[in-house]
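Sequence only, no structure available. Ideas?
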Amino acid sequence: MKDQRKARYHLPGLFEFYDLYKVFLPLFVEHREYFYDWCDIGSIYGAPSDCIWGGGRVGFGDEDPKKVIRLMQQYGISARLTFSNSLIEEKHLSDKKCNRLCAMFEHLGDVRSGIIIHSDILLDYIKREYPGFYFISSTTKVLTDFEKLINELDRDEFCYVVPDFRLNKKLDRLRALTDEQKKKIEFLCNECCDFGCYDRKNCYKNVSRKSLGQDCEDHICVSPMSKRGYRFSDAMENPGFIGIDDIRNIFLPSGFTEFKIEGRSLGSAVILEFLLYYMTKPEYHLRVREEIYLDSMLDLF
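Reply:
I predicted one. Tokens follow.
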């Protein structure tokens, strides 16, 4: 490949899949020959369970934050806290657990930690109280209008912006962005949600209500595919899917380097499939699988 840019993946499950990454990261560092040389890990993102600032997915991660911090520091990987609740009010800003997480993750040495965020109220608060973080505009904003995406990219507060996956293939307009705007776009690669879904914002609002502890019914997805649950094979058939050939042959040469992999609510076995597909050379898939599966401490399901 002539272009020397590297794809930076932002991986799911900072707290949710700690045990998986504890096995995978040493493999990635010590056996770099197993993995594509055109990609790297930009960050690992997530939120603990019972985190009221959380959003996007109802958090279930229960790993000790101190252990998570040590792992990120050991491998020099940026940790991102997913604080994408869209319904934050002033009264929620004093939450002890979320503030304690910010205090713990704000200064992790040479690699800065990030915050994936939706609410401007929360953004202003964290900027003021914990200025060491960088910020990512969350895909939960459902930015499907290209002009609104440009406005978000031009906001100084954000280092990265994750548009709705339905803008992924608007290549003529994406290529027309400035170099600075291109650097800030972080594409959601493997969304399984129906491409024609009109109710995505309500789905995210329901998660935000649940994170705040509000008594509400489960969101009923309008997509006929929802009963199947997440399947990577379905995601690959989505018109917005970004595969490795797209990344190498279209996005990297066009100046885009940031790619988000979703999956915080899935199992470790599915996350492993993402790591194999997006990062691992096919001839080493079995070897990586064996290293992961044979770790007796890891529950893959």
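The chain has one domain: 7-293.
Hope that gets you unstuck.
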